[in-house]
Design brief:
- The protein is an alpha+beta fold.
- It folds into 2 domains: 189 residues, Lambda Exonuclease, Chain A (Alpha-Beta Complex), CATH 3.90.320.10; 53 residues.
- It is 47% helix and 13% strand.
- The protein is built from 11 helices and 9 strands.
- Strands 1-4-5-6-7 form a 5-stranded mixed β-sheet.
- A hairpin with a 2-residue loop joins strand 8 and strand 9.
């Protein structure tokens, strides 16, 4: 995919909800959260860089499409434009393939392992792909979607998923609610502490406090206990590393059966800008190129209050 094609694809994705967005929106994606998708739709988040897996998935798609056609006898075409649901215009589908001689669509995947994939010929595909293809069948009103997958570059299988009207109705409801949040610029609820920090950074409260009740006190105690355990483990790990380094002495590695068990790895060298020196010697240049950034807020705790 060229840079121009990728830019056009990203712009198309911002116009509505695509199949690859659905798993994140319903909370089952291993790669993204509802807030990630929300920020992508509004252009708040920077465009995601193409990963190696994404690159090879795109590069191998024509070969997988041809293998699927060869195995099934279906004539398959990759649509040049996105499909839009006739009633819910925010639901869009960029299909990998539409079968010309049968009433079905096709999706083509690559995977590093067969984890999450059932017996070939069944509908047992990973849930995050199941929501994707059900979304596609909803948009295109097709009753069947075949999913062809190439695992580890050599194991080819085809799975057949039929339309699940009950699940599709649920997806429509969830997607409609999500798209309403996008239109109203109301972010979805955070799913982890980092996302709470991100939203708090955008609208930081300068005033206001709540008296802690028993539930809050118990949770804070649990956090402080876990924090202490984490620090103790970190100290233990550091101590064990130090002991191993002492036992190595001037040697580079410990070996076991002729293979390296533990070894020193030379640190990478890199040049860093000495901001203090630059600001002292060339203050005008420093001010010209300096940028102001605000770190994400973080929670702070008072151990004394609970130990009193």
């Amino acid at each position: 995919m060229t840079n121009e094609q990728r830019t056009a694809w990203l712009n198309e994705r911002r116009r509505g909800i695509g199949g690859s967005d659905v798993a994140a929106i319903v909370g089952i994606s291993p790669w993204a959260t509802p807030l990630d998708i929300y920020e992508q739709k509004l252009g708040i988040a920077p465009p995601a860089h193409e990963t190696e897996a994404m690159y090879w998935g795109t590069a191998l798609e024509p070969a997988i499409r041809q293998a699927y056609s060869d195995k099934t006898g279906y004539l398959v075409k990759k649509p040049e434009t996105a499909f839009v649901h006739p009633k819910y215009s925010f639901m869009r589908a960029n299909l990998d393939g539409i079968v010309l001689n049968d009433n079905r669509i096709a999706e083509f995947k690559t995977a590093s392992t067969s984890k999450g994939w059932g017996e070939p010929g069944t509908d047992e595909i990973p849930d995050y792909y199941l929501t994707q293809v059900q979304h596609y069948m909803t948009v295109t009103d097709r009753p069947v979607c075949d999913v062809a997958v190439l695992v580890a570059g050599r194991d080819f299988s085809i799975y057949t998923v039929e339309a699940d009207k009950e699940l599709q109705e649920q997806l429509i409801e969830i997607e409609a609610e999500f798209w309403q949040k996008v239109e109203k610029r109301t972010p979805p609820e955070p799913t982890n502490y980092e996302e709470f920090q991100k939203i708090r950074k955008q609208r930081f409260p300068e005033t206001g406090s709540i008296e802690a009740d028993s539930e809050v006190i118990e949770i804070v105690k649990q956090y402080l206990d876990a924090d202490a355990e984490e620090k103790a483990i970190a100290e233990r790990i550091s101590g064990l590393k130090q002991k191993i380094a002492e036992l190595l002495g001037d040697n580079n590695a410990f070996t076991l059966n002729g293979k390296k068990l533990v070894s020193w790895r030379r640190g990478a060298t890199c040049k860093r800008l000495n901001q203090a020196s630059l600001k002292t010697k060339y203050p005008q240049i420093f001010e010209e190129f300096a940028t102001v950034s605000t770190n994400s807020p973080s929670l702070t705790f008072s151990r004394k209050l609970l130990s009193a």
